[in-house]
Design a protein that fits this description.
Blueprint lengths: L2 E7 L4 E8 L3 H9 L1 H4 L10 E6 L6 E7 L5 E12 L3 E8 L12 E11 L2 E10 L2 H10 L1 H9 L2 H5 L2
Antiparallel strand pairs: 1-2, 2-8, 3-4, 4-5, 5-6, 6-7, 7-8
Family: Belongs to the AHA1 family.
InterPro entries: ASHA1/2-like_C (IPR013538), START-like_dom_sf (IPR023393)
Organism: Nocardia mangyaensis
């Protein structure tokens, strides 16, 4: 399994996941840069994502929805802060309404994704800093660790083809 470590700290409002992939950094970058590939790994396996809008550029926006096994749709958005292709990117990640507008009552995180190549493998570090400790606790209660781990663990299958 690619995810090798998961930590969270309510004092710093931080959730960190580390993963190692048997693929070069550029290949991992492509997963996030291509909306059709992103759909295959964003969200837990039982909640597949559909990317609606995808602009992975500073000031750009990514919108998507995940579909539950019962067919319910859960929209979300990214607001891209910075991009350092293929080393990583920073974005604000939040829940959205059916028109992809932010839902102010739900937690928002500033995520920093970093991809470092070592001997043909990629070490990915996913750091999310939540606006509040309550926000982090809310997503922990919602199962973010299990969901994010399941999502990230799908990347190996995608990049091995």
């Amino acid at each position: 399994m690619p995810v090798t470590n998961v930590t969270h700290d309510l004092d710093t409002r931080t959730l960190t996941l580390t993963a190692e992939f048997a693929a070069p950094r550029e290949r991992i970058w492509q997963v996030y840069a291509d909306p059709r590939q992103l759909e295959k790994i964003w969200g837990p396996p039982t909640y597949p994502a559909t990317v609606v809008e995808h602009s992975l550029t500073p000031g750009g926006r990514v919108t998507y929805y995940m579909t539950s096994p019962e067919g319910e749709k859960y929209p979300g958005y990214w607001e891209i802060v910075s991009v350092d292709e293929p080393n990583g990117f920073v974005f604000r990640d939040g829940f959205a309404d059916e028109n992809y507008n932010p839902v102010e009552s739900m937690p928002v995180a500033t995520n920093t994704y970093t991809f470092e190549e070592r001997d043909g493998h990629t070490i990915a570090t996913y750091v999310g800093i939540y606006d509040s400790a309550e926000g982090l606790q809310k997503v922990l209660d919602m199962g973010v660790v299990e969901g994010a781990t399941g999502a990230i663990n799908q990347i190996d299958d995608l990049v091995s083809v």
